[in-house]
């Protein structure tokens, strides 16, 4: 293990990344990485506005690719995955019991991870049917 300031578990370290490019090169690529045409932005006041419009195409491409190569069994689990996130997005969840309070909630079918959905806030369909968000995602 490294010193306490930069702890890194050796079993999780992959030298491939650091041998391929420097951190500055990676950050330069990350800065210019874009998944959609910004001119196609949907009006935020539209009823069908998608908060994930910038990465929705990537979700679709991955979903199609995963479904080609994975045939799920009848035994699967749908679960909420809470991911630590410190950036600025409108759909972060405030979880007061966690040390880092703001997280993003993602619904995932375990054993078939090709099907996942990010929780974007209060679901209007769930409010109409008077069900919880998790129940609405399972039935959806």
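Sequence proposed for the structure above (140 residues):
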């Amino acid at each position: 293990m490294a010193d306490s300031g930069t702890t890194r578990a050796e079993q999780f370290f992959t030298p491939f990344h650091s041998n391929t490019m420097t951190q500055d090169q990676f950050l330069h690529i990350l800065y210019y990485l874009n998944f959609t045409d910004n001119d196609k932005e949907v009006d935020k006041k539209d009823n069908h506005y998608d908060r994930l419009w910038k990465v929705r195409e990537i979700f679709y491409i991955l979903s199609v690719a995963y479904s080609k190569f994975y045939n799920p069994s009848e035994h699967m689990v749908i679960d909420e995955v809470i991911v630590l996130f410190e950036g600025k997005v409108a759909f972060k969840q405030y979880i007061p019991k966690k040390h880092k309070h703001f997280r993003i909630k993602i619904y995932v079918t375990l054993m078939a991870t090709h099907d996942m959905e990010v929780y974007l806030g209060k679901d209007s369909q769930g409010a109409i049917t008077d069900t919880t968000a998790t129940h609405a995602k399972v039935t959806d």
